[in-house]
Design goal:
Its EC number is 5.1.1.1. The chain has 401 residues and is an alpha/beta fold. The chain is built from 13 helices and 19 strands. The chain folds into two domains: 114 residues, Lyase, Ornithine Decarboxylase, Chain A, domain 1, CATH 2.40.37.10; 214 residues, TIM Barrel (Alpha-Beta Barrel), CATH 3.20.20. It is elongated.
């Protein structure tokens, strides 16, 4: 290699005052606020619950919750009570629902913290016991299984569950705040099952109302139903994926829905080297260069949340998208730059974007989902804690609640 070619792989110069992390997931909270406002407008007069389970789909629950509430969301939703307690400990006092429990769930802490609890059946007595212990009425949402087949009371057991809940309410041990269910195929708008689930939900509401239930909120719609089924809005919609600017519909982009992806995962090219034709790449040597080429090492791997199966996923360097070649390893993956001319921009130390909002033609979470044979939910949620979260456009004064 000539001196000039070798010089091509010198690290790019950074100012002494600049702080550039080796790798990071950059979360744009303005994008979150924008997305919330979009859903508030679409759902009105129904309120919006911002679903921030799984650390806000990997975006950071506390920061996203504050941004979402500041932009007009009225409720927060999580899967586990432990997730709700983290938000309460951060001083967030908005109405909050946790809906997935085990026999070891801390219902006492939920009641004490004023966290609403989803009830499918067996939890009712445990929550009532917690209310007695705390000497404070529990706030519960009764869940009916309208067809998804996971949590929720069956429609045949629904009358009994409602009756038991009302007996406890008459004793002052709880308040039935809501009735809810979850949709199975709302992301496929042509499917008839959504109409069927909606009919069962209306039947469940009628049964509850006949038993004397006077709810604050009835909620069924997730992100896709909020966008495509206004008849499913009721009093409250639960927005998860859309909160983070991702599309729930195959063949319809975030931009087409007026949403802005909030997460950008980026790093720096950590090594560059000129290799001959036939050079094998990564474990298994499943890829070999077709000619003399330059390989770039990207220090992200499956320990960082990159799907191991997603060979071919795009990485953007200096305005060009390069597919990952060879097997993705625990800590790293490789891209093939091809022939690099002496007059081309520096590569070593250049920023490498795994995915972002795609506005500049760069890769998106949807691109990586396609490469991995999964959905965009999984791509953002699996980015591991080893990748530091960096928040931009924080306005704590506006978001504080």
């Amino acid at each position: 290699m000539t001196y000039e070619a070798a010089a091509r792989f010198e690290p790019t110069t950074k100012s002494a005052s600049a702080t550039v992390l080796e790798r990071s997931a950059v979360i744009d909270l303005d994008a979150v606020r924008h997305n919330v406002r979009q859903f508030v407008a679409v759902a009105s007069p129904a309120s919006v619950m911002a679903v921030v389970k799984a650390d806000a789909y990997g975006h950071g629950a506390i920061q996203v919750a504050r941004a979402a509430l500041g932009a007009g969301a009225r409720w927060l939703g999580v899967a586990h009570i432990s997730e709700a307690l983290v938000l309460r400990a951060a001083g967030i006092d908005a109405p909050m629902l946790a809906w997935l429990h085990t026999t070891e769930s801390n219902f006492q802490a939920a009641v004490a913290a004023g966290v609403d609890v989803g009830i499918s059946g067996w939890e009712l007595d445990a929550v009532v016991a917690a209310a007695r212990e705390q000497e404070r009425p529990a706030r519960i949402h009764l869940k009916v299984d309208t067809g998804l087949g996971r949590n929720g009371s069956t429609i045949t057991q629904w009358d009994q569950l409602v009756g038991q809940a009302m007996e406890y309410q008459d004793e002052g041990l709880l308040r039935v705040v809501g009735i809810f269910s979850h949709l199975a195929v709302a992301d496929e708008p042509h499917r008839p099952e959504t109409d069927e689930q909606l009919a069962v939900f209306r039947e469940a509401i009628a049964v509850a109302e006949d038993a004397g239930v006077d709810t604050e909120v009835r909620h069924l719609a997730n992100t896709p139903a909020t966008l495509s089924r206004p008849d499913a809005h009721f009093d409250l919609v639960r927005v998860g994926l859309g909160l983070y600017g991702l599309s729930p519909f195959e063949g319809q982009s975030s931009a087409e829905l007026g949403l802005r992806p909030a997460m950008t995962v980026r790093t720096l090219v950590s090594n560059c080297k000129r290799v001959p034709e036939g050079q094998g790449v990564s474990y298994g040597l499943n890829y070999r260069t077709s000619g003399e080429s330059t390989l770039g090492l990207i220090p992200l791997g499956y320990a960082d949340g990159v799907p191991r199966i997603a060979t071919g996923g795009p990485v953007r360097v200096n305005g060009v998208n390069y597919p990952v070649v060879g097997r993705i390893a625990m800590d790293q993956m490789v891209i093939d730059f091809g022939i690099v001319g002496a007059d081309e921009p520096s590569l070593l130390g250049a920023e490498a974007v795994m995915f972002g909002d795609g506005a500049d033609g760069g890769p998106t979470a949807d691109d990586w989902a396609a490469a991995a044979g999964t959905n965009n939910y999984e791509i953002v949620t699996r980015i591991s804690p080893r990748v530091p979260r960096i928040y931009v456009n924080e306005t704590p004064e506006a978001d504080a609640r």
